[in-house]
Design brief:
Elements (H helix, E strand, L loop, with lengths): L1 E4 L8 E6 L3 E9 L6 E10 L2 H13 L4 E5 L5 H10 L3 E5 L14 H13 L11 H33 L14 H12 L4 H5 L10 H7 L8 H31 L4 H8 L6 H11 L9 H7 L23 H15 L4 H13 L1 H21 L16 H17 L22
Parallel strand pairs: 2-5, 5-6
Antiparallel strand pairs: 1-4, 2-3, 3-4
Length: 433
């Protein structure tokens, strides 16, 4: 084996793995048998099949290596990581930005594995969050449900585009194109009905108040050819199929999360959070909040914090912060939903949105929500207690607003005069006895 000289180390026996889809290179670094002050290094190539990973595990045990680090490369790290985890090794999953090789070094898989091993033995790698085996299964279900929901939304948008192309303006007069009434209208269009009066009578409930507008929107069905009607039928069938699949997944997720009903109730107690958002968030984070030192760590992991790559002023527009995109999507939805409520979070969302825009308000409210989520799940039995929509209407806040108005009025050449008649008369003090 090749011997090298290095600094004092964080770990004595380590392994660094550079992964690919079909193969990987593993480098071990252990104390030298000849000189304890020196290191011995060896690099070997392995496949990624089960028998190859087990052969690598035997090789690591022969050198008494327990700590293994690998880069989070696409999804290729998962089968190797899970297999070595089951074999009892201490695994560290590294963010690619942490183990990026230095400029000037050859960019090859063997050298990358040696670099990862060196980073691990010096303690310069902070491991990424990896879900427990139980929540890996739950996470696959919730993520697939979210993907199917997004696909159903895109299919609904395709339906609207097809109707617009056919000259049917139904989406301009109904609030939900896929409600019961509009769906009946589309089914009759597919069946061959073209009379606007007959079609408009299919409206239901509140839609019946817009029957004249619906007739006008349907007065142009001559562009809906039999071929386009058949295509519309395929789109609607696809939407129904996706809806059925989403319902089946939801039933499985409910069963898988039955032992964690308390955590779901805690998450649902926050403004803007529902059953599905609580399930998606819990599947991503798990119930054990000790894996995140603070709520700020959780918010940063989800990408709900400002960019931290700025030093001084910066020209141009900054890129978005990277994080867990599924948890970020959940907080994006819950932040907008909370902004419509008469709660402290809603008031804060509206305040920030007025001054800095809705996108920054979503990030700020998502940051707060994740910190509250971390606190709730860290405290058994806790529930969110709202501070009220008037939380910011304090005397100090009122004085700040008055000062801002006075400053602006002075800049425009005006002077604000307080209306003293609106204040109550002071109550005289009682005479001393």
């Amino acid at each position: 084996m090749e011997e090298v000289t290095d600094e004092p180390l964080y770990r004595d026996r380590v392994c660094g793995i550079d992964l690919g889809k079909a193969g990987m290179f593993a480098t071990i670094r252990v104390p030298s048998d000849r000189d304890p002050a020196r290191r011995a290094s060896e690099t070997r190539a392995f496949g990624t099949m089960k028998r190859d990973v087990l052969a690598m595990a035997d090789w690591l045990r022969s050198w008494q290596v327990e700590a293994v680090a690998m880069e989070a490369t696409s999804d290729y790290w998962k089968p190797v990581y899970y297999r070595l985890e089951a074999e009892g090794f201490e695994l560290v999953l590294a963010d690619p930005r942490q183990v990026k090789n230095l400029p000037g070094r050859p960019k090859r898989d063997p050298s990358d594995s040696r670099w990862i091993a060196q980073c691990l033995e010096r303690g310069s790698i902070r491991g990424c969050f990896v879900a427990t085996p139980e929540f890996r299964v739950i996470r696959e279900h919730t993520r697939y449900r979210r993907d199917l929901t997004g696909e159903r939304t895109r299919e609904k948008q395709r339906v609207e585009k097809l109707l617009e192309a056919a000259g049917i303006k139904l989406s301009s007069v109904v609030s939900d194109l896929h409600g019961a009434g509009p769906r009946d209208i589309m089914d009759h269009l597919i069946a061959g009905e073209r009379d606007p009066r007959v079609l408009a009578q299919l409206a239901r409930r509140r839609g019946r108040a817009r029957i004249p507008q619906i007739e006008q929107a349907l007065d142009g069905t001559e562009f809906l050819t039999p071929e386009l009607a058949a295509l519309l039928g395929r789109m609607l069938a696809r939407i129904d199929e996706l809806g059925t699949a989403i319902g089946e997944l939801t039933a499985v997720i409910e069963t898988l999360l039955e032992p964690y009903e308390e955590q779901l109730q805690q998450a649902e107690s926050m403004p803007g959070w529902g059953r599905r958002s609580a399930q998606d968030a819990l599947a991503e984070t798990g119930p054990d909040m000790t894996r995140f030192p603070t709520g700020a760590h959780l918010a940063s992991w989800a990408g709900r914090t400002p960019l931290d790559r700025q030093s001084g002023s910066r020209a141009g527009k900054a890129k978005a912060k990277k994080g867990n995109r599924y948890l970020g999507a959940v907080t994006g939805e819950t932040a907008v939903a909370a902004g419509r409520t008469q709660t402290r979070e809603g008031a804060r969302y509206r305040r920030i949105a007025r001054r800095r825009g809705k996108l920054k308000a979503c990030v700020a409210i998502g940051n707060t929500q994740l910190k509250v989520y971390h606190k709730l799940l860290s405290t058994p039995g806790a529930r969110h207690e709202d501070l009220g929509a008037g939380y910011y209407d304090t005397p100090a806040s009122t004085r700040r607003q008055i000062r801002a108005l006075e400053k602006r009025a002075t800049e425009l050449g005006y002077t604000l005069i307080p209306d003293l008649t609106s204040y109550p008369e002071p109550t005289p003090a009682a005479p001393a006895s």
